[in-house]
Structure formats: structure tokens, C-alpha cells
Write a structure and sequence with these properties.
heterodimer, A: alpha/beta, Rossmann fold, six-stranded mixed beta sheet, 6 helices, 28% strand, globular, B: 811 residues, alpha+beta, 5 domains, nine-stranded mixed beta sheet, six-stranded mixed β-barrel, 23 helices, 22 strands, 16% strand, binds adenosine-5'-diphosphate, binds magnesium ion
Chain lengths: 234, 811
């Protein structure tokens, strides 16, 4: 299968002079279309920074990133917005739903950005939110809110889904439900997924496992035995 | 496809009803009051400006000591004008409920010139009938058919009117304020007029230029020529008043204009305040929704689209507030505002004229400014990157760990300090908001006491129970013989046809009159007690003008020549060669002690130079003082010249010589009148200002507490009691509010002083900002109570939100 995401020599630092911190020190990664990739690493190792740069939220200092046909490291700020609009779904640890919009409406907020979005009803069923579709965020549980956030990221039918600690704020069972949902989404819609986590157990469901330490890639393995998310334990 | 965020708008509106209602009301009330007022005032101004043409108002008038010869009048008319006799008598008038000392300025029925505009009834046709001024009647509850006694004669009120040259009832053009309570104009038939005692007739002549559009400078030249011509013909002029300096004609118009300026200042303050509120509120919204905005931006929403979304409600609220404000202003407020003026001034019947300028300044400009400022504020906020939004780093609070606090401080103290430092921007917002609000409130609260204070201070400026200003020096300390001689001479002069007098009596009159010493001052023909004579004191009085500090107008100053060691002017230590300067003059005209200053006589054009050695009086003192000897030397008068008596006992003076009598009571009358005329405008200002202040404090308090709501929920989760949380959060807000209320006072007073100075640069007199101590207290109390109520209500609401819910929604 063709390479979908290609990162070459990615470097990033913050601060100036004395206070300068080199967060990413030359990362090279290629992911294929439809791969589920888990990015592991201790807190502060640069995982979020990596994800944010790939998502076009932050500029890289050095290196290049290609997503599909676009070299996003060459894009202007405006083109980056168009790139995110067309290709990207973001899921964060906190759900950041619009508090005065219902579940359906929260998803519609991103549905309108896409020329050929996923059908809403199917999506709501897949997300397990059909019964809750008319509720407001404060009327549903944290796991359901995260489902809604995933639905919002998915509805555009993005090529790339970037998830930054999507289960970080959830309990064991709910976390597993969310991971199962991702697995299902990957199967049904064929999007490439990058999941950032510090939870080692999650690597079991990934096709690719990347390990980050002090800004360097210390591991890049293909998972020989991909487990269904249902069977993960920690 | 329409933005799905649109569905938020009605919910956002409902959930934050208080906030949007507050913004709506703020704008609606501001627009309603200012447009209501300005529309009324500008309509009145149009009506007033039309009067000159519609009712043939004079271009000016002059008065002569005695009736001017026909030749003199013809000579004046030959210069290019028409002169019309407008003789009058200020006669005492009484009726049920009349103020003591009420006077009517009685004119015979007028014709086409300086018309009487009848609002009710008709012109007097028989000798027992009288017409009086509308405002005076209104103030005294007089109606058609009522009986009044004019100089002892019973008259029936048949007409209620306004004279075109008396839209405002000034008895004396040099007064600071008009008097529509105990002074009125009156029209009677010629016969009824002749029946009133003719001893005190004022021989006043109105003139109408052939070229009615002559500019002021040319008119001044014309008037100088006129004075010369009259003098050449042997007339003694006692008065010359140009249309533009005639307060009875211009005061009402100036007042409407000045008040419009007051309201425009208010409007400008309101616009600043509203812009401030709109920016603060949208900022708070953006801050609260920071993470959501970050997520949407990360998902590919464009900033432009989000800006549009966040602009929608402020624009909707703004537009509807502006529309509602105009509707309320036009339908409910124009007439009451108009009433404020018609209660004081005699304008012709009112009709509203739509004024585009008012619509632009009260509605379009504020609205456009509000939208623009909100938009710019939003754009500025939206400059942050999606990540900054996601991390809630859009406010300048990233340096939160910076401050190291000594360990020995108690935890609560340290915590409160941190809350304070972290929320510094909120507290700055509170401070500025409270400052604006207080400025507004103080502006409304202070005007009335300021006017009363001014009148009281002015009353202190009247040194004796009676000040008699004379047309010519008249001696009261005279022998019986001298009195008789003058009485005889007077009878001879006042009798037009000497053949009417019994020949033997005429002879004795001649004999007695021949004893009059032409070189001496005239003798008073009425007798005064030796005690009265002993305590009366002569003084000289003249009016000169000198430029004001601000603007290019001149201030009229009264120059007094008084006795050194005067028993009346006890605090004015004049000596020969030692002149004193009233503090008010010094302030208003920026005069420096020890440096020569020029003063001009506006009638003769003569310029006098005076050097002052000392300031006296208070900020309302618009006089300068010399010794009577210096005074006479300065003006080149005879040594024994003087122009008035100061006396604590009433003096019997021959009325032909008395120009005016001033008493402290009149000054108190001035105070009453000021309260009457300024009071209404100050009151209406207060009606506008108080609700606006309440709304402003409500919005600010609510915003700041809302911003702390999340931290408050956390504290509750950590196990703090409500009481402890209040101590930690609410107390620091409360302290800030109270401190702001007090600390902003000096800034506000400075700002108000500036506003008053600018306002007064167009008017006579010196008005220094003065705020009654109780006004400060009231202002701070109103602010504190408003805050307390809003904070208590709002805290109760926050506490009533279930914890779990509060936590959930926050992230
Ligand atoms: N905007 C920033 N400015 C300065 N340092 C930053 C910034 N963002 C992240 N860092 C630093 O970069 C390092 C990596 O951060 P991050 O990518 O968030 O780590 P992770 O997600 O792996 O926990 C951390 O040491 C963090 O302090
Ligand atoms: Mg991270």
C-alpha cells in the first residue's frame, strides 16, 4: 500500500538561548493509508508536539511532512486551514464540545466543513450515541462526550485522525469502549489513525508502534499480532 | 450551508439573558435618553431660531434717562434702522399665592414688532384687563379669568402670552439667571399703562436694522454710531443691548444649546462605556470558550467564520437596542424633555422636527463604533494560535508561576494574593468599569448640588442687605433746604407744560430751584433717618470686559470703587494704589497678580489697565475692587462721584435715580430659580444615569464572578466550604470593587472639572467643580449596594449549580 504520511528529519525546539529546549530531534516516520499507529512515550517526550506539527497547528523548525499529496511544511497559514478542513480529524484528551449544542449539533459543526461528509444517522449509530443524539454535553457521561468528540472528528471522513490521549480522562471500561470505536472506525472508513498515549497496553491494537524518548524515535515496530481492542487489558 | 453554530444563538441568548439584556438595555437607554433629549432640544432650537423672522424680534434696544427728542430718534433712524418706543414700568403685582416682591414689567399693547405671542386668551382690550407671561403664569398657577393687583389696581387676566424679546424672563440683563417666579412681562391697554405711576418709566427703544442680516462686527460699529448720534443730540444713554447679548432673547437658546452639549458629553461617555462593556463581554466569552474555539480551529474552521459567529449576538443586540432606543426616545421621552424647556422658557407652540444629525450621533455613530470596536477586539483575540486556544493561553496569564510569595504568609493570604495577581486583568477591568460608571453617576448626582452651592456662594457676594445702583449720584445726607430745592427743580423738569402750574406756585418753585448748586451732586428728595444715613456707604460701580482663559469670548466684570475699611466689604482690604481681584475673575480670565491687565468698556471702547495686588472672595466672585478714589481717578470722574449705596437699612431714594436694587434675597431667589431650571435637567440626567450605572455594575460584577466560576467549582471539589470560598474569591473581588469606587474618585473629579470648565467657557460667571461631601458618600454607597446585590444573587446561582455539572461543562 502507498505511503500516506511521510515525516522526514522533523526537528522542533522551544525558547531561545539558555532556555532553549530541543523537543523533537530529527524524526523519520512513514505510515500507510489505513494504518492504526500508536505513539508511546513518557510524559514530556514530545508526543503532543509531534502530533500538533503533523496536524499543522505548529510549524516545524526543520524537516518535511507530506500527507497524501500535500507537503504541509510548505503550506501557508491559509492553506493549512484548508488542509485541516479537508484531511484532518482531531481528538483531544478533553472533549471540548460546544456546551449549548446537542450531540447531533456538535457533530454538525464539523459536518458542514466537508464536501462529502459521512451520513449522520449511520455515524450516530456507529458511535452508540443514537439514543443520546438530542442531549446536551452536560447530560451525558464523559465516555459519551468523547464519543461525540470522535464523531465530530470523523464526520468529515478525514484521511487522517489524530488523537492526543483520547482515553486520558476516562476509566478502564470507557477507555476500552473508545478504543473499540476507533478500531471500528478504522475498519469502516479506512482512515489512518495516530493515537498518542502513555498507556503501554494500547499498543496491542496498533498496526504500528512508535516509541518516543527525549525527542527521538527509539522504536518503530510493525505489530505482528494485532489484537482486537476488546481483548486489551491493563 | 448556514453555520450549525447558528443554533447556539437562541440558547446562548437564553442562558445568558442577564448579560444580553444588560447590553441591550445599556444601549437602548443610552440611545433613548440622548435621542429623546437631543431631538426635543434641536426641535426647540429650530423653533427659537425661527422666532426672529416670525415674530419680528428686535436687533437691539437702548434706553435714555428721559424721553428722547423726536429729532434724536430721527437722527438714529437716518443711520439705517427703525426705532420703536418700548417704554415700560416695573410695577409691583400681587395675587393669591404671589411671591413677595413680585414685579410685572408693564408694556402698553404691542404691535407687529417684538410681537406678543398669545398661547391662551387675547390681548387686553379694556383698562381692567392684563396679559401675563405664560411661564410666569404656569409657575404661579395663574389662569385666564384670575384677578391680579397691578400697582394697587384690580386687573383681570385675559391673555397668556410670551413677548418675542422675552423668551426668558430676565429682569436685568446682567443677572446670572432669569426669574420666572416673581417677575413677568405684562401687556395692558395704553390707558391702563398711563394710569400706573410714571415716576419709574424706563425709556427703552427697540431698534430694527434695515439690513437684518448684518453681521455682529458691523452691527457693533452701527451701534457705536448710534450712541454717538444720541449723545450728540444731548441724550443720556443708560442702556444698550444688542440682540446677541440680550439674555432675555438668547438665554433660552443658549441654554438649549449648552444642555445639548451636556448631553453630548454624556453620550460620548456612554459610547466609551458601552464599547468597554462590549469588549469586556466578548473577551470573556472568547476566554470561556477558548478550548472549544481551539478545537474548531484545529478541525479546520476558519477564523473569519468564528469571528462572524461571535459577532452575531453583539450586532443583533446592538441593532435591536439602537432601534428600541430610538422608538422609546421618540415616543416616550421627547415630550417630557421638551417640557423641561417649556416650563422655563417662552417659546412658541412646540412641534417635533426629525433631525438626521441626532440620529447619526445618538444611533449610527455609537452603533458603528460598537460594532467596529467589538470586531477589532475579536480580531485581536483571534490572533492567538489554535494551540494557545486549546491550552487556554489567550490571556496574559502564562506567567502564573512567576510570583514567589514568602512562606511565612498565611496560606489564605498567599492564596488571595495569587488570585489577585492571576486575575489582575479582571481587576483592571473592574477598576476601569467602575471608574466609568462612577463618572456617569457623579456627573448626574453632582450637577444639582453644584448649582445650589454656586447660588449660595454668589449670595455671599452681596455684602449688604441692600445695594442700590444709581443712574446718577444722589446725596442722602442733605439739609431740608437742599431737599426742597431739588424737589422743586424736579417738579419743573417733570412737568411738560409749565402753564398748567399755578403761577404763584411756579414762582416759588423757581426760587427754590435756583438754590440748587449745579456743581454738586443731586440731593435726594425723600427723607432718611440719621441712623440710616450714618450706616449707608457710597460706592462706585462700572462694568468692563476682559478675555476669558478658554475660548475667544470676553467676560463682563464688575468694577467696584469702595471705601477703604468698608463696613460692608469687610474682607476686601483695598487701599489707594492697592487693587483686589475676585478669585472667580482670576480663574476664569487667568489674571496674574502684579501684572497689568487690560479691561475694555464695551460701549465706549476705552481701555483701562489695572494691576492687582491681592485676590479676594471665593470662586464665584466676578468683581474687582479699587478704592472709590482710585475708581474715580481711573474713569476720570469727579472726586465726589459715586454710583451706589450699600446699606443694611432700606433707604428712601428718589426712584428716578435708582437703576437697580440688589439684595441677598434676590440671590437666594436666584438659587431657587437655578434649582428650578437646572434642577429639571439635572434630574432628567439622573434618571438616565442611575439605571445605566446599575446595569454597568451588574454586567461587570457578573462577568468577573463568572470568570472565577470554574476555580470556585474546583475549590468546592477540594472540599472547601462556601464560606471559605467566598473568603478566598469573593472577598478579593469585593475589596477591588470598594477600593476602585473610592480610588477612582480623584480621577473622576479631575475629569468632571475639565468637563465643567469646557462647558462654562461659553457662559458668564465662574463655576468651579464642587462636589458636596454627601454626594461622594451617596455615589460610593449606590455603587457598593449595587455590587452587593448583584454579587449575592449571582453567587447564589453559582452555588445552586450541581458540582458535577459545573465540572463537566467547564472542560
Ligand atoms: N509552547 C511551548 N513552549 C515551551 N515549551 C514547550 C511548549 N510546548 C511544549 N513544550 C515542552 O516540550 C516538551 C514536550 O512537550 P509535549 O509534546 O507536550 O510532551 P508530551 O505530549 O509527550 O507529554 C515538554 O518538555 C514541554 O515542556
Ligand atoms: Mg501530551
Amino acid at each position: 500500500m502507498a505511503t500516506y504520511l511521510e515525516v522526514r528529519g522533523l526537528c522542533k525546539s522551544y525558547g531561545e538561548g539558555e532556555a532553549r529546549v530541543q523537543v523533537l530531534r530529527g524524526i523519520d516516520v512513514s505510515l500507510k493509508k489505513g494504518e492504526v499507529c500508536v505513539l508511546l512515550g513518557p510524559s514530556g517526550s514530545g508526543k503532543s508536539t509531534f502530533l500538533n506539527i503533523v496536524g499543522g497547528l505548529e510549524p516545524a523548525d526543520e524537516g518535511s511532512i507530506r500527507v497524501g499529496d500535500a507537503v504541509i511544511t510548505d503550506l501557508s497559514a491559509n492553506d493549512l486551514v484548508e488542509y485541516r478542513r479537508a484531511q484532518l480529524g482531531f481528538v483531544f484528551q478533553f472533549y471540548n464540545l460546544v456546551p449549548d449544542l446537542t450531540v447531533t449539533e456538535n457533530i454538525e459543526v464539523c459536518q458542514c466543513l466537508s464536501a462529502n461528509p459521512l451520513p449522520m444517522d449511520d455515524l450516530l449509530h456507529s458511535l452508540g450515541l443514537w439514543e443520546h443524539r438530542r442531549k446536551f454535553p452536560h447530560e451525558i457521561s464523559g465516555g459519551q462526550q468523547q464519543r461525540c468528540a470522535i464523531g465530530r472528528a470523523l464526520v468529515k471522513n478525514p484521511g487522517l485522525l489524530l488523537c492526543d490521549e483520547p482515553t486520558g480522562a476516562l476509566d478502564y471500561h470507557t477507555s476500552k469502549e473508545i478504543l473499540e470505536l476507533m478500531e471500528q472506525v478504522n475498519r469502516e472508513y479506512g482512515c489512518t489513525i495516530v493515537i498518542v498515549t502513555h498507556n503501554d497496553a494500547i499498543k496491542g491494537m496498533a498496526h504500528r508502534i512508535l516509541r518516543l524518548r527525549d525527542g527521538q524515535l527509539v522504536g518503530d515496530d510493525v505489530n505482528p499480532h494485532v489484537l482486537p481492542a476488546r481483548e486489551l487489558t491493563w | 450551508m448556514a453555520s450549525p453554530l447558528r443554533k447556539r444563538l437562541p440558547r446562548e441568548l437564553r442562558n445568558n439573558l442577564g448579560k444580553y439584556l444588560g447590553m441591550f438595555l445599556l444601549l437602548a437607554l443610552a440611545v433613548a435618553f440622548t435621542s429623546g433629549f437631543l431631538v426635543a432640544a434641536s426641535s426647540i432650537q429650530l423653533i427659537g431660531e425661527g422666532m426672529r423672522a416670525d415674530y419680528n424680534t428686535e436687533d437691539g434696544h437702548f434706553a435714555t434717562t428721559f424721553k428722547a427728542d423726536d429729532d434724536s430718534i430721527e437722527a438714529v433712524e437716518a443711520l439705517g434702522c427703525t426705532v420703536v418706543e418700548q417704554f415700560y414700568i416695573d410695577a409691583p403685582m400681587t395675587f393669591d399665592g404671589a411671591t413677595d416682591g413680585t414685579q410685572a414689567r408693564v408694556f402698553p399693547n404691542r404691535g407687529e414688532r417684538n410681537q406678543a405671542i398669545y398661547c391662551n386668551g387675547r390681548a387686553p382690550e379694556s383698562d381692567g384687563e392684563i396679559a401675563l407671561d405664560r411661564v410666569f403664569c404656569q409657575n404661579n398657577g395663574l389662569e385666564i379669568g384670575d384677578a391680579v393687583q397691578l400697582a394697587g389696581r384690580e386687573m383681570r387676566l385675559v391673555g397668556i402670552m410670551t413677548l418675542a424679546d422675552y423668551t426668558c424672563l430676565f429682569q436685568n440683563n446682567s443677572s446670572f439667571i432669569f426669574n420666572s417666579l416673581s417677575f413677568t412681562t405684562a401687556q395692558v391697554t395704553q390707558d391702563a399703562y398711563d394710569a400706573v405711576d410714571q415716576g419709574s418709566v424706563i425709556y427703552s427703544y427697540a431698534f430694527f436694522l434695515n439690513d437684518r442680516s448684518m453681521p455682529l462686527t458691523e452691527r457693533t460699529d452701527f451701534e457705536e454710531d448710534m450712541m454717538e448720534t444720541l449723545a450728540d443730540n444731548g441724550e443720556v444713554i443708560t442702556d444698550l443691548v444688542d440682540y446677541e447679548s440680550n439674555q432675555a432673547i438668547t438665554y433660552a437658546m443658549d441654554d438649549t444649546e449648552g444642555d445639548q452639549m451636556m448631553w453630548q458629553i454624556l453620550l460620548a461617555m456612554l459610547i466609551v462605556i458601552m464599547a468597554f462593556v462590549f469588549v469586556v463581554l466578548t473577551d470573556a466569552t472568547i476566554e470561556a470558550e477558548s478550548a472549544v474555539i481551539g478545537t474548531l480551529l484545529a478541525s479546520g474552521w476558519r477564523k473569519r467564520e468564528l469571528v462572524t459567529h461571535y459577532m452575531t449576538l453583539p450586532v443583533l443586540v446592538g441593532v435591536s437596542g439602537a432601534v428600541a432606543g430610538n422608538v422609546i426616545g421618540y415616543t416616550l421621552l421627547v415630550l417630557p424633555m421638551q417640557g423641561l424647556y417649556y416650563n422655563s422658557y417662552g417659546f412658541p407652540p412646540y412641534h417635533t422636527t426629525f433631525n438626521l444629525g441626532v440620529l447619526v450621533s445618538t444611533t449610527i455613530v455609537p452603533l458603528v463604533l460598537l460594532v467596529a470596536i467589538t470586531f477589532i477586539g475579536l480580531l485581536r483575540r483571534m490572533r492567538a494560535t489554535p494551540l494557545q486556544f486549546l491550552r487556554r493561553e489567550i490571556t496574559h496569564r502564562s506567567k502564573r508561576s512567576g510570583l514567589q510569595l514568602p512562606e511565612r504568609l498565611r496560606f489564605t493570604t498567599r492564596f488571595r494574593l495569587r488570585v489577585f495577581v492571576r486575575n489582575l486583568s479582571h481587576f483592571a477591568t473592574l477598576f476601569f468599569g467602575i471608574m466609568f460608571g462612577s463618572l456617569l453617576l457623579l456627573f448626574g448626582l453632582a450637577m444639582m448640588p453644584l448649582m445650589t452651592h454656586f447660588a449660595e456662594e454668589s449670595a455671599k457676594g452681596v455684602p449688604a442687605e441692600h445695594l442700590y445702583a444709581l443712574k446718577a449720584p444722589v446725596e442722602i445726607d442733605v439739609t431740608e433746604d437742599e431737599r426742597a430745592a431739588y424737589a422743586a427743580a424736579e417738579e419743573l423738569v417733570l412737568t411738560e407744560n409749565l402753564t398748567d402750574i399755578d403761577p404763584s406756585h411756579l414762582l416759588s418753585l423757581y426760587l427754590q430751584a435756583s438754590r440748587v448748586d449745579e456743581d454738586e451732586n443731586a440731593a435726594n428728595t425723600l427723607e432718611n433717618s440719621p441712623e440710616a444715613i450714618a450706616q449707608a456707604e457710597k460706592f462706585g460701580m462700572a462694568t468692563l470686559q476682559t478675555p476669558r482663559r478658554f475660548g475667544d469670548l470676553s467676560e463682563e466684570i464688575t468694577v467696584y470703587g469702595i471705601q477703604p475699611g468698608s463696613r460692608y466689604w469687610t474682607d476686601v482690604p483695598v487701599r489707594d494704589g492697592h487693587a483686589c481681584l475676585g478669585l472667580g475673575v482670576q480663574q476664569k480670565c487667568a489674571i496674574v497678580l502684579g501684572e497689568p491687565r487690560e479691561f475694555a468698556d464695551k460701549y465706549t471702547g476705552d481701555v483701562y489697565e489695572i494691576v492687582f495686588d491681592e485676590t479676594v472672595g471665593n470662586t464665584t466672585t466676578m468683581n474687582i475692587y479699587l478704592t472709590l478714589d482710585d475708581f474715580n481717578r481711573l474713569f476720570g470722574n469727579d472726586d465726589d462721584y459715586f454710583s451706589g449705596y450699600a446699606s443694611d437699612m432700606p433707604l428712601a431714594l428718589n426712584s428716578r435715580y435708582v437703576a437697580t436694587e440688589i439684595t441677598p434675597d434676590q440671590m437666594l431667589g436666584v438659587a431657587a430659580q437655578l434649582q428650578d431650571s437646572m434642577g429639571t435637567i439635572a434630574q432628567s440626567l439622573l434618571y438616565a444615569v442611575v439605571p445605566l450605572f446599575l446595569i454597568l455594575i451588574y454586567l461587570l460584577t457578573k462577568t468577573v464572578i463568572d470568570r472565577s466560576a470554574r476555580s470556585i467549582s474546583y475549590m468546592k471539589v477540594f472540599g472547601y466550604h462556601d464560606r471559605e470560598i467566598s473568603r478566598l474569591y469573593i472577598r478579593s473581588i469585593t475589596v477591588t470593587v470598594l477600593a476602585s469606587l473610592v480610588l477612582c474618585l480623584p480621577i473622576i473629579v479631575g475629569a468632571l472639572d475639565l468637563i465643567v470648565q469646557v462647558m462654562m467657557s461659553k457662559y458668564a460667571g465662574n463655576l468651579e467643580i464642587w462636589i458636596a461631601p454627601q454626594t461622594y458618600v451617596i455615589e460610593v454607597l449606590v455603587g457598593a449596594v449595587t455590587y452587593a446585590v448583584v454579587a449575592a444573587l449571582h453567587m447564589r446561582r453559582i452555588r445552586s449549580v450541581p458540582l458535577a455539572l459545573a465540572m463537566k461543562v467547564q472542560e
